[in-house]
Amino acid sequence: MKYAVIGNPIDHSLSPAMHNANFEALHDEDASYEAIDIPQEKFHLIKEIITEKGIEAFNVTIPHKENIIPYLDEIDSQSETVGAVNTVKIVNDKWIGYNTDGIGYVTGLKQVYPDLEHAYILMLGAGGASKGIANELTKYVQPKLTVANRTMSRFDNWNLDINKISLTDAESALSEFDIIINTTPAGMKSNKEIPINLDNLAEHTLVSDIVYIPFKTPILEKAEENGNPIHNGLDMFVYQGAESFKIWTGKMPNIKVMKEAVLKRL
Ligand code: ATR
């Protein structure tokens, strides 16, 4: 079976290496996964591109997670909530969309924080990534989730039962949380910004970021300097891929091999 990831730019994507390593570990010689660069202006050709290549299952990444929706016959409820799709499965010419980013993040978080069910969690940022994770977290976590954002109007289309606060209020209440999750792009790439002042951080609080390039964002570096446990976005990437594989095949992937394949290339 032929798999792919579509995006733009896509040449640095680690998805092909990660999925091909899994196929090899499972001795699936007929499976192959490629990266396909589709610029914005060619996106209207998506159906032709995928069909011509004989692809039956694919991932969708930046900037096409929303663009893909009009081309799908069905989307799952997580994609509906987030308004974005990262996984597509083609069954009898029917294109079905899923979003595994939120479940991928939460599954990764559970590995490092097994008692997630009882955690008091603060999320920073209220974009698409945040909404997807918040929607998954509210399914498992008993204490009410708190989400902090610079711009309160971002919450207007959020229908989740959560506490919505400003970043300033989050700074003063910081010591009340067991886990802090940064979903903002502050600290990504060469940007050295930290989205919140960490002075009030409690000693035990786990600080997590959905980014893994850089491997330690400035917020994680600062938390680590403080002696706090930290967690980056690598697990989210691996588990979103693992969840996509489960949707496509109904089989369990070799997560260890997938993670090693990514780590080797970082
Ligand atoms: P994504 O879809 O990847 O989540 P997004 O929709 O662009 O990305 O959302 C980015 C989020 O990070 C937003 O909540 C944004 O806050 P605003 O709504 O106030 O714009 C937040 N964000 C971005 N840069 C930030 C920064 N430097 N400090 C704090 N929050 C930031």
From TrEMBL:
Protein's name in the database: Shikimate dehydrogenase (NADP(+))
Organism: Staphylococcus gallinarum
Record gene name: aroE
Positions of the SDH C-terminal domain: 233-263
Domain Shikimate dehydrogenase substrate binding N-terminal: from-to ranges: 5-88
Metabolic or biological pathway, per its Swiss-Prot or TrEMBL entry: Metabolic intermediate biosynthesis; chorismate biosynthesis; chorismate from D-erythrose 4-phosphate and phosphoenolpyruvate: step 4/7
EC number per UniProt: 1.1.1.25
Protein family (similarity comment): Belongs to the shikimate dehydrogenase family.
Domain Quinate/shikimate 5-dehydrogenase/glutamyl-tRNA reductase: 110-186
